[in-house]
Every structure is written in C-alpha cells, then in structure tokens.
Amino acid sequence: MNVQVAARPTVQSANASKLAIADGDIHPQRNSYKDLFPYMEQRWIEMAKTFGSRPRQAYQAGPAYPKSQPNASRRDAWPPEGGRPGSSLPFLRQQLLDENNIQLGILNPTGDNGASFQNREFGAGVAQAMNRWVEAEWLIEPRLKGSIVVPYEDTEAAVAEIERWAGDPRFVQVLMVTRTANPPGQKQYWKIYEAAAAANLPIGVHAFGFGGYPVSGSGWPSYYIEDMVGHAQSAQSFLASMVIEGVFERIPNFKMVMIESGFAWLPSLAWRLDKIWNRLKVETPHLKRAPSEYIRESVWLTTQPMEEPQPREHVLDALDWIGWDRLLFATDYPHWDFDDPTQVLPMPLPEQQRRDFFFNNAMKLYRQA
Amino acid sequence: MLGGAIDCDLHPSVPNLRALHPYMTDHWRDIIVQRGLSELESIAYPANSPLTARPDWRPEGRKPASTLDLVRTQALDPFRIGTAICNCLYGVQLLFSEDMGAGMARALNDWMVAEWLDKEPRLRASIVVPVQNPELAVDEIERLAGDTRFVQVLMLVMGDMPLGKRLYWPIYAAAERHNLPIGIHAGSSYRHPVTPLGWPTYYTEDYAAQAPAFQQALSSLICEGVFSKYPSLKVVLLESGFTWLPAHMWRLTKFWRGLRMEVPWVDRAPADIMRSNVRLTTQPCDAPPDRAIFQRLLDHMGSDELLLFSSDYPHWQFDGDEILPDGLPDGLAKKIMFDNPRATYARLTETV
Questions:
Q1: In a domain, A334, yes or no
Q2: Could you list the residue range(s) of the whole structural domain that residue A323 is in?
Q3: Nearest CA in chain B to A306
Q4: In a domain, A7, yes or no
Q5: Cβ contact (<8 Å) for B216 and A185?
Q6: What is the value of ipTM here, to two decimals?
C-alpha cells in the first residue's frame, strides 16, 4: 500500500483546448417564471402566479440547502447584459461554446422545471412549457441539443411529452433526476423508458431533484456538502433499482446516462451488485445476466465533477475500470464546480482516447456522428 | 492461515425473546408477555434468505449461531480464531419506545455476559445501546464500561437521524472516555426508506443500499465535526464492504476543498480523517474479479491500517475456509488479522 505511481505532469498540453469538445451537461436558466409564460397555458400561468411551484421541499424559492454561490454559479458567469448565470444565449455562446470549442452541448434544464411538483398536472404543464422555451430560445444555436423535460411522476403525461418531441432531431435525450419519488426501476416508470427506447433516446439522469424522501436512510443531513456528496449515493441507489428491477433486461435498446453524480463509485457498486445477486438470485429470476453486464452495456456517465484523488492519477484507474467508451466529458456550466477541459484530466492521454473522451463518445451516443 | 486471529464481526443470535426473559426487570417481562411480543428480528436479515446464514451453518430446528456450541464448532475452532467480537443484531434499536428500547438493550447485554462472555474466554462483545435516546444510551455505556470484555459500542448505520448529528454526541463522548470505539453495523431502524428514492422492491436492493448508507454516515460524522470534537474516537464500519471507500474519500475531500467554509471545524481533509479514525471490516468483500484491480484498489485506500479481519459469521459471505479476501498480500493479511484490530481496540490488550 501507499504505492505512488511515478510523478507525471498534471495539466493537459495547451493545445488541448483546440480539440472539438462535446459537453454533456449545460444548464440553461430562466430568469423568472415570466420567461415561460409565452409557452404556457393560461390556467398554469395563474397557478404559477398564485401558488408557485410547490416542489417536494420546504422553500418557495431557492434550495433547502443554501448553495455555495448565488444560484450555485461561477462568479464570472453573470451575463454582462444582466440576468442570471446561464440565462443569456449570446454570453453562453461566447463564454462556454466558443472559448472551449464546444461543438456539441447537451442542455439539461434542471431545477424548477415541473418534473416533481406536488401538483402533478401543473408540473406537466410547466415541463411542457420548459421544452417549448428551450426549443424556441436555445435550440436556435445549432451546437446545442435539448433534453426533453418530462413530468416523470405522471407516467402518461411523461410519455406524451416524449412523443411530442420524439421526431425533432434537436432533442437527443429524455431528462430525469436521481431523486425520484419512488425507486425508478419500479413498474410505474417503465412506460417512460419504453417510450424513450422506442424514440431512440437515452434517458439522462441528472443529480438533484425533490423526490420527497431524505437523501440518506438516516434522514436529512445538516449541510449542503452532505447533500452534494449525497448525489453519488443517490445515484448508486438509482442505478441499483434500475438493474435489480430488470429495466435493462426488459426493455431492449434502453440506454441511460448518469449526469453529474460522479463516476468513481461505479466499479465498486457493480462488484457489490454482482456479489449480492449471486447470493440472492432466487429473488430476481427476471435477471438473466450479472448486474455488471447490464451496466457495462447500457450505462454512460458524465465526468463532472471529476474526482480528484491524491495522487490524481488514481482516478485514471477508475476510468479504466468503467470503460473509456462509457464516459462523457461535461462542464456543468454555469455552475461553480465547472470542469475545464484543459485541466480536467491528470495526465495527457493517447490521442484517440482523448478524442473519444472529449467528443466521439457523446457524438455516437447522441447520434450526431 | 495464521491461528489466533482477531475476528471483529461475529453474530451470536438470540434464540427468541423468551431467552431474554431472565435478564429483564419484572416490569419488562410482564409487559412483553402481556402484549404478546415473541421476537424482535429485523427485516435486515430475513430468516431464510441465503445471505442470513451459510447453508452448512443452519442447524436443524434452531436459529443459526444461537448456541455457544455452534459458534465454537463452526467459527472459533475451524478458523482458529483467537478472539472474536460479538455484535448482536437483535432488533432492539428498531423499537419506537425509548423505554422499551433501553429495557431490551439492557437485557440483551446482560444475556451476552451470562450466556457468552462468562462461558467462552475467546469472546468479547459490543455494548448494544438504545440509540432511540442518547441519554439512556450513555447510561447503558456507563453501566457496562467497567467490564473490559465489552470492547465497543454498537450502533446501526441507519437510524432516526444522520449519525454525526449533535444529539448523538454524548454517546461519542462516553465512548471516547472509556476507550471504546463506535462500531457501526449494517442495518436500519427503518425510520426512513433505505434509499433516497423510497422503499425498494427487493431485499437485494436493501442489502446493496447498505454501502451508500455507510458513505453517508461517514459524510455526516466528518462534516458535523465528530472527529474534531473527539479526535481519539475510532469508528469501525462493520459488514460495510470497503471497496467503495476510495471513491468516497475522493469525492468528500474534493467537496470539502470547495465547501469547507460551511464546516470550518473540519480542520483536516476528510480522506486524512478516514485514514486516522475510521476502520472497516473485511467481510463482505465486494472485490473485483481481477486480482490486479484489487491490488490497485488497496493502493487507493492509501493506508494499510484501515482494514480489520472479520468472518461475519453466520452470514453467508464466503464458502469453505475462504475467510480472507482473495489476493491480500501476506504482510497485509497479518496486519489485518492481528495488528490493526489490536491498535483499534485498546481493550483487547488489557487483562480481563
């Protein structure tokens, strides 16, 4: 133990930024509900004005765990013309796309998007408006592609939303979060996955969300840092549910991307699931293969926030064990824990591997190649 | 294999609640009989689930590990165990009544002394505490701490609140005062679903969820500042798995770098705190299929002092005599079986 690998340079060569980059996680941000009103039915406008979103958490506005920065944003991401970070397409073009040579950017409109409101019908109305807003105000930039916001706690409405956009090639993914109200592998959600698979769209599962249950099996922690770190644990339970319930076995062509939940936990989870499944197989006869096989075949992960061990090279082992073809670079713009493509990897990679990691894997998964 | 090793996680089982009757006060015995309680077995280990007991450790007509003879002939003798720490998993922490929890914990600990520790010198035990009420939990620690055959305080990884919460600190203060590590075992009092996504369908998921629960318990203990307040406190994760540790170290340490303003009392990197104050038992070992990967993973842990040998008897974690994870270097195996447990449990080297 305590074996150190040889010291290596810890920064990418300067011309790394000239690589074409695919960014698996960009957050377009609306300034207020009013931005959505042009895309919203009148009754939902009234609902938004009168009662607000009422997600499954305590505050009308802002998160229950105060973030480290206003809107969890990079301090330099406030658009010069005003508005919230991530709300200006011209500034996002300049600061993110042009500066980092991002040729493909996946938009994930998370947050107050209707997906997990207590009032599900209202939530479905807001989700629909979010997609119209993204289509009209963001997908005019050809480098950006959309994720379909779906009210996943209302299966029928979610399927309808997928079908509404399935024929539009500018939408390349269906968006869920890691904090669903019930274990996501359970039957009530299957029709959503079937609709996504039928439309050739992966499900993107972003960290966060308000499912209603505490992030730990021991209840609510005290701090934002625990909530943030807890996304990795939530993602583990999400993936375990999907595997053990047999979603990957039951639905051919189903693909899933875990977004912003970390990735280094995956190998250990896969080993653990294999071991437990071997012992308890009698409980899950619907599984025909070892859990790790389903994961290897059907799961992708975005890499932000990149794990940073000491020494940093250790993270390459985790990437090796997952499989370099299953990892998608992401920045999480405009958020404070942004990953910079020129700094994110602890050592230079062979050219082909570098191109796959930063670009080709995403182009292939999202059928852009 | 080297004889005389220290097994840090062995589970004698309570035959049934009646077996505790002699150790209850009259009040609690009357209540138990009057209200018709016959068992306190948790759903964490369904009786006939394969994992709950190895097939060759299931005696006809009796619970596995429910007699001293079974423990001797199936675990202590064949594995040549020198000392074993008994962690009794009877579900006293699951009761909603604080008073009944305390009454049952007390009976359980006295049963442990009379039926096990007094009869078998190779055995040591953890003090089971009524975590439902930290004040009563401290009383139980104080009542038993004078008996040096109790070497640890036992809690479950999932309870009412995250384990680092200040409400629990009197337990940690008492443990530190008496040189007792806190043993945190897999399991839940089921106050909340075991996953952040609600109650899972399958037992398989419940057991898988223990590993994330341990990760969150470490986040809580570290971020709340338990190790800043009680720097010599050791926490031992029991039946936790350990291959998840490096990834969690990395993630918590990274976020600490970005968010330490929120928890300014955390004055060292979480990875360093884990290496100095946290220990993990070897069963179950969620190991990779490839030995070279396992070796890398041990390197990632960054210390050879983290692991403590355990059998997890009678749970079915391994077959035959493959009690040690495959692929441990010899020197490390010896550390895990002898040196690390001795360094962790000061009371093991004291004269009884």
A1: yes
A2: 18-365
A3: B251
A4: no
A5: no
A6: 0.97
The helix, strand and coil proportions of chain A, stated in percent and rounded to the nearest 5, come to: 40, 10, 45
Give the total number of structural domains in chain A: 1
- Would you state the structure tokens that stand for residue A164, as one six-digit string? 């509404």
DSSP state of B21: G
**Lookup: tokens for B229:** 């307040």
End-to-end CA distance of chain A: 44
Are A284 and B204 a contacting pair at CB < 8 A?
yes
3-state secondary structure at position A110: coil
Q: Rounded to a whole number, what is the distance in Å from the CA of A252 to chain B's nearest CA? A: 22
CB B342 within 8 A of CB B315: no
Spatial separation of the C-alpha atoms in residues A50 and A44, rounded to whole Å: 10
Give A-chain residues touching B197 at CB under 8 angstroms: 178-184, 211, 213, 234, 237-238, 241
Residues 6+ apart with CB under 8 A from A36: A30, A48, A126, A129, A130, A133
Instruction: Check CB contact of A237 with chain B, cutoff 8 Å.
Output: yes
With both helix axes pointing from N to C terminus, report the angle between A291-298 and A224-244 in degrees, rounded to the nearest 10: 110
Structure-block tokens of residue B222: 């570290």
Domains of chain B, by residue range, sit at: 5-343
Is the minimum CB–CB distance between A13 and chain B shorter than 8 Å? no
Output the CA angle A137-A141-A144, nearest 5 degrees.
100
Contact A2 B299 (CB under 8 A): yes
| Residue-by-residue pLDDT tens, chain B, 352 positions | 569 999 999 999 999 999 999 999 999 999 999 999 999 999 999 999 999 999 999 999 999 999 999 999 999 999 999 999 999 999 999 999 999 999 999 999 999 999 999 999 999 999 999 999 999 999 999 999 999 999 999 999 999 999 999 999 999 999 999 999 999 999 999 999 999 999 999 999 999 999 999 999 999 999 999 999 999 999 999 999 999 999 999 999 999 999 999 999 999 999 999 999 999 999 999 999 999 999 999 999 999 999 999 999 999 999 999 999 999 988 999 999 999 999 999 999 876 5
Q: Do B254 and A305 touch (CB under 8 A)?
A: yes
A338 touches chain B (CB under 8 A): no
The label of the residue with tokens 């109790």 reads: B150
**CB-CB: which of B158, B196, B224 is closest to A211?**
B196
CATH of the domain at A251: 3.20.20.140
- Are B39 and B17 in contact, with CB atoms under 8 Å apart? yes
- Chain A residues with CB-CB distance to B251 below 8 A: 229, 232, 262, 264-265, 307
Beta carbons within 10 angstroms of residue B100's beta carbon: 19
- CA nearest to B165, candidates A216, A222, A226: A222
Task: Name chain A contacts of B287, Cβ cutoff 8 Å.
Answer: 271
Nearest CA-CA partner of B11 in B58, B73, B55, B53: B53
The answer to whether residue A8 sits within a structural domain is no
Chain B residue numbers with beta carbons less than 8 Å from the beta carbon of A284 are 202, 204
- Domain presence at residue A1: no
Strands lying side by side in the sheet with A144-149: A21-26, A102-107, A144-149, A171-177, A203-206, A256-259, A299-302, A327-328
For residues B343, B345, B347, B352, the Cα torsion angle rounded to the nearest 10 degrees is -100
Q: In what order do the strands lie in the sheet with B123-128?
A: B5-10, B81-86, B123-128, B150-158, B182-188, B235-238, B278-281, B307-308
pTM for this entry: 0.96
Site from A218, A222, A247, A286 to mutate, B interface, most B CB atoms within 10 angstroms = A218
Where do runs of H (alpha helix) occur along B63-188?
Answer: 68-71, 98-112, 134-144, 169-177
Q: Which fold has domain B5-343?
A: TIM Barrel (3.20.20)
